[in-house]
Design a protein that fits this description.
With 1252 residues, the chain is mainly alpha-helical. The chain has 41 helices and 27 strands. The strands form 12 sheets. It has a 3-stranded antiparallel beta sheet with strand order 1-2-3, covered by helices on one side. Strands 15-14-18 form a 3-stranded antiparallel beta sheet. The longest helix has 40 residues. The two termini are 68 Å apart.
Length: 1252
């Protein structure tokens, strides 16, 4: 029997079914809630989930103001009409259908059912089931016949036009046919009556249908268009029944084409049915998740987010007023905001708590009571801090009534708070804790806060073994005694309390000329004048600001200028002035630096004022016992005279903020996202753009235990002790003070910069326009070169000066991370993530014997640093190192006067340092007992592609990036270059000019950067610029072909990667499209790493903010404002690389933790891991095991589940209704995880060149 699909009425169209004398058809199976598939008298019902009802046919549900959306719905309807018309061609027979009893909704007089509310946006009817097998629905509602008639008229007209075009294509002559009531029906349409009892059938001439008013229908009258396409093989073409007129029989050739189209339509309908079934399954799963969804997965659309910026400003203002003792000003501002209803909405409980703590210190119960009344008037609820302030005040009040204290404790209980939480969650300052306890002891003398002895650990299965006590764990101790650590703590504390440190510059070694001495004296004299003038001006400004009566709600600058002495502010300004480059600095960058310095000083003073330093000393002493071995918008530009004075003076000292320097003691361990690293200097665990707080909100929502693994990995990286390689530092400083060496990455002094020519107006008058343009370009080029040289020179000066200052010290680098989880040392200038120079002068403070294989690893590491033998095996590299031992020893003995073999290495300074270490080792009595401090590196083989290949289980990709064991390393860059060369040869044979020009110029170096960055989201445009830069470095390549060649090569590189890494491209495309749909829905992309670190992309549409000043106005471009819509382009382009970065950081953290438990010293530069030569083999084993463990987790499936829960569950019906198509598309895409290959991850454990 032929196939017929009957579509019952969808839920969301409960009031929109057109009923006149017979029930008209509803045309798309995708719009149904229930549809019946009947074949060979077998009944099968497939249910669609409630939300899948699509509103296409009837625009009364579409808000009239959304004209653009209405046009989209109308166009989609016309497509449905086209599909339905082909079905009509087979509908001229009466079908014997066996089915279940189906009943309809009662219709209103207007012929339309009720909508679920007065507004088109009311979608409550979506969740109400309207059509059920064996049940009767209900209807009713407003009359929308006027809009219906206009829409139906247009629909019929468009339908007729499309039908005629289709029939002309198929060669069918259609003529209009009148129904029994004289109304025109579509050509070839026959009215069918499907009875409620099986076995009965009627013809198109059946009796007149009964009116459906206030009674249940006994039949469904529908066109055959209501179903899915009828199978062409089983339904012959019949003549349409009109008034004796019949349509012509189509020609056989047209019939065959029509049958093919019908089969294709049936296939599409089957696919749509499967899609709807999948959507139903996903919706059911989301509903299950929604019942147990964690709070962080729920979209935070609270209006409070709108006021965060204002609340933060008011909070800072109140804190500043309180700190400088201006209590009246703070109280006045709070009361003013409270009295104004429009401003009261901006207040939160934290602002009232600021004043509560003030009055608690003063023991003023009356003021505390008034604050609680204000909180109640504002509609807020007191929190733990509020009750803590009240109890503190009562503890400070002599003879406080126990009834009052009992009332507070009782109110706490009613608010769902307990006393224990006060001591566990509140932060106490000075003697606050003692006062709270005193108040409680008044009514409960035996009360003592309990200590939580239950240790919660990270729930990630990846670190389950790490937090399990094991007999073979060898947690390392620092090579310092307890007294030494305490002494280092005292020195670090003193440095941070002063907040700045002055060190000697490496340029101080130069002889002082009379001119230099004169300029230094003049500069010192001028600074004293500036200091005195600035202090006077600042004091005068403060007096003026203090005398001005502030406006009601306006925040004055005055309290912020009272946080410190005027001299402190002036010192900060002069320090910033000394660091200004000759070309000037952007005003908002300078303002940010000034603000950061003031903030840091304030925080340090606040901690000292609150007696936190004493508490920190006590806690750090206990921690030391565990470590010790015995237990351009606006611009500010310095005047040229000042610049010249500074250059001529060549001052011998440099002043830095204390956090710029490495720490003299082990960093404070990270115990939460807000506490760790420096002793007093405030530091964020996650680096963000100033003003962006989305990351902090996510971290606050996390349970502390979920971040344990991340925090512990940061602590492990920060606990690695360093020292300076003094012999190498002396060589570098000598070259630095002797005009530098650009080849060796030692920048020359500014005196070597090109001279900037000056031209008078008279001289310019003699030049032509072309000559003037040429001079202008040369001038711009010379200024740019001077600026670059100055920047590079100062950067090298800072690094070398800090290294020279620390030359006899042991020091540490505290670590934090960016928003993707990638770790970085906190000191900005001098650290092991720096250039070749800074890496070369850093060695481990702890030395370990080389052991039996250590010297081998030193030699292999040296060959790796040269950049030679990349395609050779480890044995081949070791053999090569043995053949060049003479060059190695000569480089170590005569680095500047010998053969200078080391200078040709890719990393010359690290190579020279390694040569010196090898020379010392081989000349020792027993190299196996030689104590080595030198770090040996193991670098990932195109690490981003390694993660992609592992995610997709891509065998070909895994082979290319050394996930599969091979005798020699596979070089993906050389592989791509070879394939691109094959493409070039093919095109050259076809006569392509640029392919012929490129003969002999396609090398590994040309394509390496593009291949490396494709995995991190580089576009074809960016890739072309990279290749263009590489081609310009090739001396023999014709410069006139650079653009064409780069354009050609980037296409070939992308084509080559697409062939080599099929799985990678599929995963990358899935991530990109997922991010695009998420951003388009108005959300920023979030995910959680396998170690539980929450990540959010802070890319929003740019907002311009004007800041008016007395000097100039600033126009700031703010891209991180969470109140702005997400930047869709940045969100989608950044998601794949950021996700991969989060995975490689997770792998690094896992390796760091397990290396620590094995007793290794471990540090990393992202995907380059460092350890002693003795422990390279152990680190390699751990590295591979953790990579396999990481990718054994269902990473993509867990990501899919998280995104589904985050962005598709818990949505309101209104959101689903307004953006249904986008919602369904996103739902299906996020659930469709890319398929994986059959690569066996366990092979990574045996791959020698995975990291090498």
């Amino acid at each position: 029997m032929s196939l017929l699909r009957l579509c019952a009425l969808p839920k969301c169209l409960s009031g929109l079914i057109l009923l006149e004398r017979s029930v008209r058809r509803v045309s798309n199976a995708g719009h149904c809630h229930y549809f019946v598939t009947l074949r060979n008298n077998v009944e099968r019902r497939i249910s669609d989930p409630p939300w899948t009802s699509q509103r296409r046919h009837f625009s009364a549900l579409i808000p009239k103001k959304e004209d653009g959306k209405k046009r989209v719905w109308e166009q989609s309807q016309l497509l449905d009409v086209l599909e339905a018309r082909i079905q009509q061609l087979q509908s001229d027979i009466v079908l014997d259908v066996q089915h279940a009893k189906v009943q309809l909704v009662n219709a209103s007089k207007s012929g339309r059912g009720a909508s679920s509310g007065k507004s088109p946006k009311n979608v409550s009817g979506w969740r109400t089931e309207l059509l059920k097998v064996g049940q009767t629905g209900k209807g009713g509602g407003k009359d929308a016949s006027a809009y219906k008639s206009r829409w139906m008229e247009k629909l019929i007209q468009e339908k007729t036009t499309k039908t005629k075009k289709l029939n002309l294509k198929l060669g069918i002559e259609d003529k209009p046919v009148k129904s029994r009531k004289g109304k025109l029906m579509l050509p070839g349409t026959t009215q069918k009556n499907i009875l409620t009892k099986a076995g009965k059938k009627t013809a198109s001439t059946s009796k007149k249908s009964k009116t459906l008013k206030n009674q249940e229908p006994t039949a469904i009258q529908a066109d055959t268009m209501a179903g899915a396409p009828v199978a062409a093989a089983t339904v012959p073409i019949r003549k349409a029944k009109g008034k004796g007129k019949a349509s012509k029989e189509p020609a056989p050739e047209f019939s065959e084409a029509r049958d093919q189209e019908l089969a294709e339509l049936e296939r599409k309908t089957e696919a749509k049915a499967q899609e709807l079934a999948e959507v139903e399954k996903l919706e059911w799963k989301l509903n299950q998740w929604a019942m147990s969804a964690s709070p962080e997965l729920v979209q935070d659309n609270s209006e409070a987010r709108m006021y965060e910026g204002v609340q933060l400003s008011v909070h800072c203002y109140l804190e500043a007023c309180v700190f400088c003792g201006d209590i009246d000003r703070a109280q006045r501002l709070l009361l003013t905001h409270h009295r104004m209803i429009s401003r009261r909405n901006l207040l939160n409980i934290g602002l009232y708590n600021v004043m509560m703590r003030v009055w608690a210190k003063k023991g003023s119960l009356n003021q505390i009571g008034r604050m609680f009344i204000l909180v109640e008037e504002a509609g807020l609820k007191p929190n733990l801090t509020s009750y803590c302030a009240a109890l503190e005040c009562m503890g400070r009040t002599p003879n406080c009534s126990p009834k009052v204290i009992n009332r507070v404790l009782r109110q706490m209980k009613e608010d769902g708070l307990c006393v224990e939480e006060l001591f566990r969650l509140c932060v106490f300052r000075q003697d606050e804790r003692d006062m709270v306890l005193r108040a409680i002891h008044t009514v409960e003398p035996d009360f003592q806060p309990s200590i939580n002895t239950v240790l919660h650990t990270c729930s990630s299965p990846l670190v389950k073994d790490f937090y399990t006590e094991r007999a073979d764990a060898k947690y390392p101790k620092l090579a310092f005694s307890l007294e030494e650590l305490r002494e280092r703590f005292s020195r670090q504390l003193s440095m941070e309390q002063t907040s700045t440190i002055t060190i000697h510059s490496v340029e101080a070694m130069k002889p002082v000329t009379p001119h230099m001495a004169k300029m230094r004296a003049l500069l010192a004299e001028q600074r004293m004048v500036w200091h005195k003038a600035l202090v006077g001006a600042l004091r005068e400004s403060n007096m003026i600001l203090a005398s001005i009566t502030p406006k009601a709600v306006r925040l004055s600058l005055y309290p912020y200028l009272c946080l410190m002495d005027q001299k402190d502010y002036v010192d900060i300004m002069i320090q910033s002035l000394s660091n200004l480059p000759p070309s000037g600095e952007s005003l908002h960058i300078l303002a940010k630096e000034l603000g950061n310095r003031v903030h840091n000083k304030f925080c340090i003073r606040m901690k000292s004022h609150n007696q936190m330093v004493d508490k920190l000393s006590h806690i750090y002493n206990e921690y030391a016992e565990l470590l010790a071995k015995d237990s351009k918008v606006g611009f500010i530009k310095p005047h040229p005279i000042l610049t010249q004075m500074q250059q001529d003076a060549m001052e011998t000292t440099l002043t830095f903020d204390s956090y710029v320097m490495p720490m003299l003691c082990p960093p404070v361990p990270w115990t939460s996202a807000k506490f760790g690293a420096y002793l007093l200097t405030p530091t964020k665990m996650m680096r963000t753009v100033v003003g962006a707080n989305q990351h902090e909100i996510l971290l606050e929502k996390c349970q502390d235990a979920d971040l344990h693994a991340v925090l512990d990995s940061l602590n492990q990286l920060g606990n690695a002790a360093w020292r300076i390689n003094q012999p190498l530092l002396d060589i570098i400083i000598s070259i630095f003070n002797d005009k530098g060496n650009e080849k060796l990455d030692i920048p020359p002094p500014n005196s070597e910069a090109p001279k900037i020519l000056r031209y008078s107006q008279q001289d310019l008058a003699t030049y032509s326009s072309a000559e003037k343009a040429h001079l202008k370009r040369e001038l711009v080029k010379a200024k740019k070169k001077c600026s670059e040289m100055h920047s590079l020179r100062m950067d090298a000066l800072y690094k070398l000066s800090i290294a020279n200052h620390m030359r006899d010290e042991v020091f540490w680098f505290p670590h934090n991370m960016d928003f993707r989880g990638r770790t970085y040392p906190c000191p900005p200038y001098f650290n092991h993530l720096g250039s070749d120079v800074t890496r070369a002068i850093l060695v481990f403070a702890e030395g370990k014997p080389l052991g039996p294989g250590g010297l081998k690893w030193l030699k292999i590491h040296l060959v790796n640093l040269t950049g030679l033998k990349k395609r050779s095996s480890l044995a081949g590299r070791l053999e090569y190192a043995n053949t060049i031992m003479d060059d190695i020893l000569d480089s170590a003995d005569n680095p500047l006067n010998g053969k200078k073999w080391w200078q040709n290495a890719d990393e010359p300074w690290q190579a020279l340092a390694c040569c010196m270490e090898i020379a010392n080792a081989v000349r020792s009595p027993d190299p196996t007992h030689f104590i080595s401090h030198f770090p040996v590196h193991q670098d990932g083989s195109c690490n981003g592609l390694q993660h992609y290949a592992a995610l997709g289980r891509d065998v070909i990709g895994a082979t290319s990036v050394n996930l599969i064991p091979c005798e020699v390393p596979q070089d993906v860059y050389s592989g791509v270059a070879q394939q691109v060369e094959e493409f070039r040869v093919r095109d050259s044979e076809k006569g392509l000019k640029i392919a012929q020009v490129l003969e002999g110029f396609i090398s590994r170096k040309v394509v390496k950067q593009t291949v490396m960055t494709v995995v991190y989201g580089v576009t074809r445009y960016g890739g072309r610029l990279q290749i263009e830069k590489r081609l310009k470095e090739v001396d023999d390549f014709p410069k006139e072909y650079v653009w064409d060649a780069s354009h050609y090569l980037v296409q070939q590189v992308f084509s080559s990667l697409k062939e080599m890494f099929t799985g990678t491209r599929e995963i990358q495309d899935w991530l990109t499209e997922s991010a695009r749909l998420i951003a388009k829905s108005g959300n920023t992309v979030e995910w959680v790493t396998p170690l539980g670190l929450p990540i959010i992309q802070p890319y929003h549409r740019t907002r311009t903010q004007m800041l008016k000043g007395t000097i100039q106005d600033l126009s700031l471009q703010i891209t991180h404002d969470s109140k702005q819509k997400p930047d869709t382009v940045k969100q989608k382009n950044a998601f794949p690389p950021n996700f991969i970065h989060s995975l490689d950081s997770t792998h690094m953290m896992l390796t760091a933790l397990y290396c620590y438990s094995a007793g290794l010293t471990f540090v990393s530069v992202h995907d380059c891991f460092w350890t002693h030569a003795l422990t390279v083999d152990t680190m390699n084993k751990v590295c591979r095991e953790q990579f396999v463990a990481l990718h054994s987790q269902p990473i993509l499936q867990e990501l899919s589940n998280f995104l589904l829960q985050k962005y598709c569950s818990g949505l309101s019906s209104e959101v689903k209704n307004n953006k249904f198509l986008e919602y369904r598309r996103m739902l299906l895409l996020l659930a469709k995880v890319p398929q994986t290959g059959d690569f066996d991850l366990q092979q990574v454990k045996e791959s020698t060149y995975f990291f090498s």
